[in-house]
Every structure is written in structure tokens, then in C-alpha cells.
Design brief:
four-stranded antiparallel beta sheet; 126 residues; 0% helix; globular
């Protein structure tokens, strides 16, 4: 079993920043790609960013490119999402997830991930 646990969400004004963290235990963390997803009310869950097992390859959804940065610290079994220049449309529950395959590249489909955190709320006010 793997249990990712997110932290760092909250309420911020438009233009502000937040840093999300996800600590994952129960699986050799450094062997797996990780992803950040979000889900707004009435919408499907979508990928925000993903990072390969080594951290050498990243993927960003087009609306967050240049504003969000995903990174990982394998020594701490933690992945981060730095969010800058936040917009009201970034408001959602943000989830951390562990990809299914060993040593894989970052992927953007929900079904590519098999362990999910409980989510953390991010609210951006205008």
C-alpha cells in the first residue's frame, strides 16, 4: 500500500503563491513518476503537472506552464508543486498521485496512476 499525503493548500488572492507538498510512503518513492491533478466543482479531474522518477523530465498542462513548477526530493519521499501568479480559475481540490509503472516518464491520464492522496483545497480569490 502507498499513502500519498498532500499539504499546503489554502486561500490566496489572485497573483499570489502557494506551495503544495506530497509525502508518499509504502513504496520505493524514487522508482515512480508522480503527478499533481486538480478537480474543480462540476469538472473532471485533470493533470496539472507530472515528474519522472528521477526528476529529469516534467510535464505541464498548458494553462499552468510558466506559473507552476513541479519538483521532487527523493531523499525525503516528497514531491512539490510551486504555484505562482495564481488565478481564480486555479481554484480546485489538488491531488497527488503515484504512477503505476516503474521508472516511467511522466504521464497525464488519471488511469496511469494507482494511488491517490485525499486532496487539498486551493482557493484563489479575485
Amino acid at each position: 500500500q502507498v499513502q500519498p499525503v498532500e499539504s499546503g493548500g489554502g486561500l490566496v488572492q489572485a497573483g499570489g503563491s502557494l506551495r503544495l507538498s506530497c509525502a508518499a510512503s509504502g513504496r520505493t518513492f524514487s522508482n515512480y513518476a508522480m503527478g499533481w491533478f486538480r478537480q474543480a466543482p462540476g469538472k473532471e479531474r485533470e493533470v496539472v503537472a507530472a515528474i519522472s522518477w528521477s526528476g529529469g523530465t516534467t510535464y505541464y498542462e498548458h494553462s499552468v506552464k510558466g506559473r507552476f513548477t513541479i519538483s521532487r526530493d527523493n531523499a525525503k519521499n516528497t514531491v512539490y508543486l510551486q504555484m505562482n501568479s495564481l488565478k481564480p480559475e486555479d481554484t480546485a481540490v489538488y491531488y497527488c498521485a503515484v504512477e503505476r509503472g516503474l521508472y516511467s516518464s511522466p504521464r497525464k491520464m488519471v488511469d496511469d496512476y494507482d494511488y491517490w492522496g485525499q486532496g487539498t483545497q486551493v482557493t484563489v480569490s479575485s
